[in-house]
Structures are given as structure tokens and as C-alpha cells.
Amino acid sequence: MASYMRVGNSARSTQDSCTEQDQLYGQHSRNEQGVGNTEDSDYNNYLSSRHYPDPDSDNSHFKQDSHAQQNSLSNQYCSSENGTEAAHKGQQHMNGRFIIITWSLLVAICPMILINVALLVLVRKFSVDITTLPYPQLKSPTPDIASGGAYFIDLPSTFLIFVSSWASSIAPLCGGMLITLASYPICKSYLARMNHGEDKDLPTPYQYSLVIRFLNGGSFGAVWFWLLYCCGWQKRERQSAPVKQVAAVTICTIVLGILVLLADTWLHIATESVNVVTWAAMSLPRLSYGLAPHFTELNCTGAFKARQCAMNWTNNIETLLDGGVSLAVLNNISTLATTSSFSDHRGTFAYMASPPYEELSSIDYTANTYGLQTQCRPITQQCKLEPGMSSQYASFDCPGAVFELQHYETNFSYNENGGGRWTMLVQSNYFTNSTLLDCTTIGLPSPYWESKAVSNPFYFTFGAGFPRVSDFTSGPILQDPVLLNYRGGTGQAAFVAYLCNTSIYDITYDSINGSITRFDMSISNDSVGQYFQAPMALSATNIPLLQAAMEGAMANSVSGDELGQKFANTYSSIALALGAQVIQRNPAVIAQQRVTRLLTRLEMRPFFTLLALNMTYVVIGLALATAAVLAVSNRAVNDFQNRLSVFGLVADRFEGSRAKKGARNIDKLFRESEGRGPVGRVVALPSQEGGMELRLRKGTTVSSGFVD
């Protein structure tokens, strides 16, 4: 420190001091000639003969010189507010102050800016909007996966993590550059206190070493020694302002680096690869159903004409118009359509839908179609049973209708001993309205039924006879009063009758992810009703189908009400399938493609936390760079900042007067930089006090300073 203060004296004082120091070094050199060739004992004797002035001793001459120098310095610095700069006028100054500041600023802020820009560009360019749908009405009712606040990026999660992890890797380097920028205003403050004689706020030698350690990349190590000094030294001096300032800056950079590391770790943990469903508009697939063009013409309009258009008439015999289409749909092997069911509080409906295919599972759509709903209630107890001459026949008299049950198909003969099984007997009658007084059943005289047509909904009665009911079920339904036994005993012949109505609807529904989310319906006109009722009134078609429907319902029902409901649902599906002969496929109303993609889920909170911490480096760097530029307007600040380093301290210790001279850069303080022959080597030798001291040795010459 005293060496630097001599630089701040007048040119004459500086020259005298340098001359005196050179003479001292020369004396040391002459006195120590040949030491390298002596034995260790001789060298120890030499060391014991050495005597250096002790500032703490009673040497009045030393004290007078010291006080004189201090007064000279105080008078010089106090006489001018910018005393240090005045002392350096006409001398060489360290170059590169603005280059170092600019370089430190760029290294401190550019990596963080580049990382932030890279992350923002990647998120912006590859972000996938999973909340916007081509058709919002087809939005899934399930919870939105994006509700937690995240970006979904079409990039591998490992790539995003790799980019973000550079922030925590570069943070220590950026922190070191911030300390370099902070060193300039700290040095300016140091010189200001020194110039104003505020010695109590200047560092002690150990504190000075701490400052050097902080400013020369000490980081954690410097903080550790500073903590030991603060907490371990019981009788230490009060910490000076430079120590506090540089310690505060270093700790702030360390804390900021740790925060970046924590934010980066948080982002790593929160970032994951997930399967996400996205949507895209598509050309409309043919998922709706409507009448084929022929069945919308005028000659098929109206209930009766529609009935004629829906059936073939040959020799007064009615058959299906296109039985192959209807039977393919009925047996679920058609590529045209299939029958599906939907149930809600309004009941159960059978509707026409597209057969499943590979792409259909990934399409959400709205479609128009036709649907049927059948409802049945038991009327067995409202009718009168009159057994016939054998168990195969029974007369069943109901209000508004007469069933003459006959054995339609004999697969087995009836055996009283239980060897065989009778086939179920079924019969149905259709009526024009709910009064059940106007019958349209095929088989009546031709002039009568040809002029009849049903309404929508249409009504019918249905009866089934079981020659031996125990062949069909053994469940609790045998005890239900809806089942009328007429041969004594629940295992013998029985009969059941239902009054049913079937409604045909124009249906619009939404299918999302294979599930029906909306099912709107309106009653179809009577013409459409005829297309689905007429095939069911054809006895050659309906008897075996209704027989199979009743057998299946009887085997799986426990009550008469359940039997009627299951039969009604099956009836709707059969009627819908037989009516498929008049329909065609049409484009869906709207449709969108669902695509399951593997995306990276990037949480917003850790992402923006990391960006904010990265930008903190930028803000602090710009602030410190501004302070540094203002500080180095005094050239002495840059000179002192360069010497406040390990290089400056070593040069001051070993380079003699050369270290006190002005120089363009710190390298010029060392004679080795000139390349003019060999220079002394630093050695650690035993000291007189029992420790060690650093010396320069050149050949056999050992000195405390530069050896010429």
C-alpha cells in the first residue's frame, strides 16, 4: 500500500523513493553475493545478521519519515478533490479499460439473452394450441389437460431441457464477469476514501488480501475465508467498506446463480412428455343417413304412397324392396350402416350409424340419421283367455283386437313326458292410431288394407304363447302375473300380451371420442314412418324375427316389465335394420380429426421464473457496466483496479521500482515481459523468525526483490 501511495506523491518524491529502493535492493544484492554457495548454517547466520526497520519499534527516525510521508500525502490529496488523477498527470496509464468493461458486460449478459431468446423462439414456433377446435361444439366434456397452465411443445422434452440447462451452467461465468464490473466502482470508492484520509474505512492487510481473493475469481472460496474472518477472528478490526462491498456483490452473484440452478431443476422436474389430443378440420366423411333420392319423389310422398314405394308387390304378394341390404344390416355385416343404441332419461333409442372402420375412431362429428323408440306395456290381464282344443291353440280376446294364436313353425313335436320342445307362438296386429280400432294387418281382404296406412308413431299389439314355458326360462318371471298360465302349473303352457308403440325420429347427434354427447330428435313425417313400419307388417319377415326377439328377452328377464322393455329395444333394432333398404349415406354435418401426439408439457411457472432470473443478470450487468464506465473516467481508477490483483501484488513484492512506474498494461510491470535475458526465480526459504519467506534467486544471488 505504501508503494502505491508513493506513486501518488510528487514526481520528485517518487523518484527519490524509487532511487532509495533501488539502492536498498542493490545493497541487498551486494551483501548477499555468494550466499547460494554457503552451507545452510552460514545462510542462517547471514539471515540473523539482517536487520529491517520495524514500524512498531521505537525507531524515531522511521516514525518521522513515516509521518512526513503521511502528512505530505494528506496535504496533496486534500488540496484537490481529484488528487489521485492529478498525481498521475504526465504518467502512463493502464489501457483497455473500456475493452475490459465491454467484454465483461457481453460475457455477463449475452449468454443469458441468447438462452432466453432461444427458449422463447422454440416455444413460440413449436407451441401447439390444444384448446382451439375447428368446431367448438365438438369440445370434449372431459377436463382440459391444459387447465394447469402449461405450453405444449412439439419438440422432444430432452431438447428443451438441454437448452434450458445452459443457464445454470453459464451462471457462474456470468457471475464472475459481474464481479469484474463491480470492481471499478469499488476501486473508485476505495480511492475516494483514501484521498479524503478516511483510513479507518480502508482495509487492513488481511482485508486487502480478502478483497484481492474476491476480485480474482474467489467466489465460494473467498466467501468461506470471509466468513471465517467475520466469525472466527475474535479481535479483528472493523470491516472496511471495500470488503463489505465486494463481499456483498460476490454473495449476490452466488445467490443468483443458485436461484438459476433451482429454477432450472424445477423446470426439469416439471417438464414431461405427454400424449395430447389435438384436432384438425377435415373433409366431411359420409356419416349421416337420409332417404335415397327415389324415396323423396312425389310419387312416394304421403303415408300410403310411401308404403307402396317401400315394398315389392308381385301377384298380390308383398316382399322387401331390397332384402339383401336389410338383412346385411340386421346381421351386422353391412358396409352401409349398422344399428346402435342410445339411452338417457328419455328412454332407449335405436339409431342408424356408420359401421366401425379404422379412421372412424379418430373422428369427432355431428351427423343426421334416423332413430326408433319402442315402448311396450303388458295387457295380459286385460284380455280374456279361452284355451283351444289342444295346447297348441288358444283364443285370446282383447279390447279392440283378436289374436288367433296358431302353431307357426314346428321344429319339435310336443311330448307330455318332456322329450321335446314346442316352438314359441307369436302374432302381431298393427293399427292406424292409438284407439286400436282400425287394423292394418296384412292378410285382411285386399280392398280393406290397401287403403290403410299407419301414423307416426304407429301402434301394435303383440302376443306370444309358450306351449311349455319351462323350455324358455326357469327364472322369477314364471311367477309374474304378466305371464298367464292356462294348463295349470308354471312349467306348462303360458301366454303374454303387450300393447306397443313405435316412434320414428329425425336425429342429430354429436359423437366425440366414440361417445354420444348430444342426441337431439324430432318426430319424422308419416312417409318416413311407413318406410320402417311396412317391412315389420310383413308376416313372412316379422314372425321369425319377433319370435327370436321374444325368446332372447324371456331367457334374460326376471319380470314382465323387463321382458317388455327388452323386447321393445330389440323390435326397434329389427325395424331399423329392415328399413335400411330406403336409406343412403350422406356427408356429416361437421367433422374434425382427432390426432394423438406426443408433446412436451412445459409448465409456465418454472419457465418464466427461469427467464426472469436470466434477465436479472442482464439488468444487473447493465447497471454495473454503467457504474464502471462512470468510474473509469478517472484514469487512476483503472490503474488501481489493475493493481488490485494477484499480478499487482506480486509485481509490487518482487519487481522493485519497476512495479511503481506507470505502464500500459499489467504485464509491463514485470521485467520478464521485455525478454531481455533470464530473471530471478521465486523461492521459499527459511526465515530468521522460524517461518518462511519468499525470495528471488538468480544463480547464487538471493534477494527480497529484483535481482539485476
Content-based structural category = alpha+beta
* First and last CA, distance: 24 Å
Rg, alpha carbons:
53 Å
Q: Helix tally?
A: 19
Task: Estimate the helix proportion, in percent.
Answer: 40-55%
Tell me the fraction of residues in β-strands, as a range.
Answer: 15-25%
Low-confidence stretches: 1-87, 401-422, 442-451
Q: What is the number of beta strands?
A: 21
Taken from the alpha-carbon principal axes, the silhouette is rod-shaped
Task: Report on the architecture of this protein.
The protein has a domain at 98-134 and 151-276 and 601-628. Strand 15 and strand 16 form a beta hairpin. The longest helix has 39 residues, at 157-195. The strands form five sheets. Strands 1, 2, 6, 7, 8, 12, 13, 14, 15, 16 and 18 form an eleven-stranded antiparallel beta sheet that branches. A three-stranded antiparallel beta sheet has the order 9-10-11, with no helix packed on it. The protein has a three-stranded antiparallel beta sheet with strand order 19-20-21. The two termini are 24 Å apart. Residues 1-87, 401-422 and 442-451 have low confidence and may be disordered. The protein is of the alpha+beta class and 708 residues long. Helix 9 (219-232) crosses helix 10. The protein is 42% helix and 21% strand. Residues 1-66 are annotated as: Disordered. Residues 51-66 have a biased composition (Basic and acidic residues). Residues 10-48 have a biased composition (Polar residues).
SSE map:
Elements: H1 2-7, H2 11-31, H3 40-49, H4 60-78, H5 83-87, H6 97-126, E1 150-153, H7 157-195, H8 205-215, H9 219-232, H10 241-270, E2 272-281, E3 288-291, H11 303-310, E4 311-314, E5 317-320, H12 323-330, E6 338-344, E7 347-353, E8 363-378, E9 384-387, E10 394-398, E11 401-405, E12 425-431, H13 446-449, E13 458-466, E14 484-485, E15 494-512, E16 515-523, H14 526-533, H15 539-555, H16 560-578, E17 583-586, E18 590-603, H17 604-631, H18 635-643, H19 646-654, E19 681-686, E20 692-698, E21 701-703
Antiparallel strand pairs: 1-18, 2-18, 3-17, 4-5, 6-7, 7-8, 8-15, 8-18, 9-10, 10-11, 12-13, 13-15, 14-15, 15-16, 19-20, 20-21
Helix pairs in contact: 6-7, 6-17, 7-10, 7-17, 7-18, 8-10, 9-10, 10-17, 11-14, 12-16, 15-16
